[in-house]
Amino acid sequence: MGDGWWGSGERPQKNEDARVRPFHIEASEEDNKDLHQRLDRTRYVTPLEEAQFHYGFPGTELQKIVSYWRGEYDWGKQVETLNRYPHYKTTIEGLDVHFVHVKPPHLPPGQKAVPLLLVHGWPGSFYEFYRIIPLLTEPGKHGLDPKVTFEVICPSIPGYGFSEAPHKQGFDAVAAARIFYKLMLRLGFSQFYLQGGDWGSLITTTLSQMRPEAVKGLHLNLLLMSNRGLRMLLCILLGRHLPWLVGLTREDVRRLFPYFEKSVYAVLRESGYLHIQATKPDTVGAALNDSPAGLAAYILEKFSTWTDPEFRKLEDGGLQRSELRNTHKPD
Asked: What Gene Ontology molecular function terms does this protein carry (predicted)?
């Protein structure tokens, strides 16, 4: 399984601090003041006429979001909600790794909770699991089978949320999987269940492959394409114009490409962010880290389109139908 060091500078000779430290999210007045000043200075782009969300997040809708964020959104209430469950940090491979750890409040004598690691993706966070946590840790209270009660661990991927970002190049799903495996061992779990979506899907799948004896079950809400699938995609891309090169007949082309244009092209159209984040993260990061309005547009556009591609046709991108304005009410 190997080892790694993602902290600043050289790895120290002394053993890593293995303590698990309680962590509490704070609402800083200084940070709030800085946020409000940046929001007040937002400059908006005039969108194309009748473009809705086809070209991304239009400036007219962004103004509404910023107005709500600046004048109505209550960060203090959101902090209370975030602190609803116990938070912790621990140092693994040089990084302070943040996680939420929720134990069942009540277990019958002799019954053991089932350890479950939930891993988020992008642009998500540990918070996306808040609504399901009560169903997992108190199933009987919600009309579910109390014989299966979970102990839930929701870590933040390094670089996300309150987890420290790697300081070295090369951090990948293998490194994240190894860190989360070490986290589970540190919490006393030699065997556990996994759930992952988006990047969490890749991380949990990798962990299952690295330590199959430790993973009792794996649930995914994103299935990733295999190497064979990638080769097939390349064949399809070439096959439209050079079918003979990849062994496709005219009938194959006639049957295949209407579907291809509808589905695969749609994926390509919505994956530009992936390429820039994978190749030039420092460049896009400089802009997004400096502009909260820009970051909101960048993320909320995904919440719109990835919820329903048809939302691109709506003036508000379907966001007014979402729970954007009720994020401090997880129940």
From this structure: cis-stilbene-oxide hydrolase activity
